[in-house]
Write a structure and sequence with these properties.
Elements lengths: L1 H21 L2 E14 L2 E13 L4 E9 L2 H14 L2 E2 L12 E5 L2 E7 L6 E2 L2 H10 L4 E7 L3 H13 L4 H7 L4 H19 L1
Parallel strand pairs: 7-8
Antiparallel strand pairs: 1-2, 2-3, 3-4, 5-6, 6-8
Length: about 190
Amino acid sequence: MAGEREGGRGGRDRHSRDEQDSEFVDRLVHINRVAKVVKGGRRFGFAALVVVGDQKGRVGFGHGKAREVPEAIRKATEAAKRGLIRVPLREGRTLHHDVHGRHGAGKVILRAAPAGTGIIAGGPMRAIFETLGMHDVVAKSQGSSNPYNMIRATFDALAHEDSPRSVAARRNLKVSTLQSRRQGGDAEAVVAEA
């Protein structure tokens, strides 16, 4: 009977953990097979790069290594869930402003886009935006095409993304004041051009 109770409790814990995991979407970005030469021949190992997000503004990436592919993916997914960051999104669909990111030889440019544009990005960057829940963005990768560098450069760019609320708090202003100044500045620029 005690065994049944313990099994029941374990089942409930597992069920709640599955519910918690179900809120996250994960994308396998890259798998690398490496070989170690030993006396008997070659011993293969696998490295996995995974991006995890909740499609509501939180995203993370992880790297895992193991002798088998599923184990490497599991380790990478756990690492990604430990390193989630929150990214402020405008209207829940795009960035607030254009931003540059860099890691090593990898450089990326992320630009806010109007509604209906879609995700214009390639490879690893697309996986990040899909798991983040972003719908409209234009992104360009320059320099390194190594997926590890591209992902780290993209995360560097997203870390520099600011929302009007955080800028207003930093400058002791109201968000409405900040937004009206922005629109006023645009109007002044149009008058100057005419």
